[in-house]
Amino acid sequence: MKDSIIILCGGGPAPGMNTVVCSVAKTFLEGGYRVIGLHGGYSGLFNQNPRIEDIDFFKADAYFNRGGSYLQMSRFKPTDEDFEKRFNLALFQENNIKLLVTVGGDDTASTANRIAKFLEAKKYPIANIHVPKTIDNDLPLPNNTPTFGFNSAKQEGAHIARTIYEDARTSGNWLLISAMGRSAGHLALGIGEATHCPMTIIPEMFNKTDITIDKIIKLTLSAIIKRKIMGVDYGTVVVAEGVFHDLSADDIKAAGVHMTYDEHGHPELGKISKAVLFNELLEKEFKKIGMKVKTRPVEIGYDVRCQDPIAYDLSYCSELAMGVYTLFKRGETGCMVYVDAFGNASPLYLHDLQNSEGKIPPRRVDIEGGIARNYYEHICHFITPSDYEAAKKYVADPEAYDFKKILCW
User: Fold this and answer.
1) What domain count does the chain have?
2) Treating both helix axes as pointing N-terminal to C-terminal, what angle do 274-289 and 213-230 enclose, rounded to 10 degrees?
3) Are residues 127 and 181 in the same domain?
4) Among residues 54, 61, 82, 136, which one is catalytic?
5) pTM
6) Which end of the chain is more exposed for a tag (fewer CB within 10 A), N or C?
């Protein structure tokens, strides 16, 4: 029987999923291996009747440059009981599987770390290598290397936001954009920088103070008032959904927002429109202070996850896939594949990346780094002390809308 490998995809989709899976398939097929695709993410490993199928060259060649994921994904996270009672070892034994390739973000990587420990403890002769995916760009790769899917999502997000900015300029309105990013603001900041958005609000901005709805609203008004002083009556505001994720339960309740939570304790942000919520809260503030501004909400999220990957991700995902083969042949396991700017692959061992709880913590925006610092110093618009006198035309207490004072910077 041929040596085999098996591939699964966890979490939510990102541009390049098919590129990774199909490039892994092509590379290992060329090396003489059988390649098996596992549907249902991790749930298939703990199911006695998993849905599997062989991936041959023709299937891989037909899907490698498409958006979405040919292998059905899942957010299933196994329990300790699943590991002890339901791990499908027979799947590996009966198919002579030597390598498990997992593709996913921080949650999928954390489960890959658990699987690595489990395989080692049981002394099962199965290697496992993880491929870092997510449009949120929040896996801890060295040298600010992106996760695959991020650049494609940013490209499409910026395309949408660029059109929205032109709508704002043409109609003399303000458009409020919510961008995906549960734990980090990379995508929102990338979109804001690429489109010269006058205000981008991300969780990492609040490094010296708590996130509150009042501060989010005041930061937005800071940009609107500053632009009015400049004679500009239009603009966009990009808000990362993570700022709503990090709000306190009391603040959410006080604002009259009802939020449900998934089985992992995460707010189910996808079930409500953050842009609509943000717009409603802002309109209340306009009425309160007597300011007349037209705003419209826009959501950027699920529409960027399954698009076709751009050339960057087509190349990068192919390099990651070939990197999996290189690492496997070196005897590496329990690692995440890392490919540098020159295409060289090296392992990032999952146990070295884990926190005290055994999870892989998300990489957040370096708010002191050059990307964030330059955006907020040179593109972002907001009230400073030199604007106080002019701002009194619009609000009685301009200091309350001073960007740096709101954030305690």
Assistant:
1) 2
2) 70
3) no
4) 136
5) 0.92
6) N
